[in-house]
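Protocol step 4 of 5: obtain the predicted structure for the target chain.
Materials: sequence only (see below). No template structures provided, no constraints applied. The aim of this step is simply to have a reference model before the mutagenesis design in step 5. Sequence pasted as it appears in the construct record:
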Amino acid sequence: MNWPIKSASKPMSAITERAMNGELDFKAALRERVALLKDLPESTLQEVFDHHITLMQGAKTLVATMKVRGASAHLVSGGFTFFTERVAKALGFDTHDANILDIAGGKLTGTVREPILDKDSKLASLQHYAAQYKLPLTATLAVGDGANDLPMLLASGLGVAYRAKPVVAREAAASIRFNDLGALLFVQGIAKKDWK
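Step 4 output (structure tokens):
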């Protein structure tokens, strides 16, 4: 995500790109990116959501169709709860987990609350939700695009690299490069006439 701050956006984009490619330690990269946001007004978060966040095409249909078929949907992100809360609500996810930005006096402090949600946390979330629903991991589907998604993708029954970084697309069991998220319904054998 590129924040609407001229001084921070170029360094932040470069750090984000390297972290998603697995070239940097995710936790260190996240701390470095968040430090660039120090003293940013809290209200900027809503501005970013309103003007810079777009939902992926097919996401609402994917979640709705799977849920009417008895599945649960959990959003686990290395991003921030401010955004995942809103995305989860808009798309109908059952839960959302992400990192929490520290805020004081109406401004971002430049720090993120520990522990940071990373690749190990994503894998642990997959295992937790599978156990909660008494499902073997082979009955799960996970989708991701960055290097911190790989352990989760490799452990799930079907791990899909969606418009992913090359390292992720190479290692995941399946890769979708061009279609919207509705393609994940085709992969599961759900005919378009049954989509919600």
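Step 4 remarks: Residues 6-194 form a domain with the Rossmann fold fold (CATH 3.40.50.1000). The radius of gyration is 17 Å.
Proceed to step 5.
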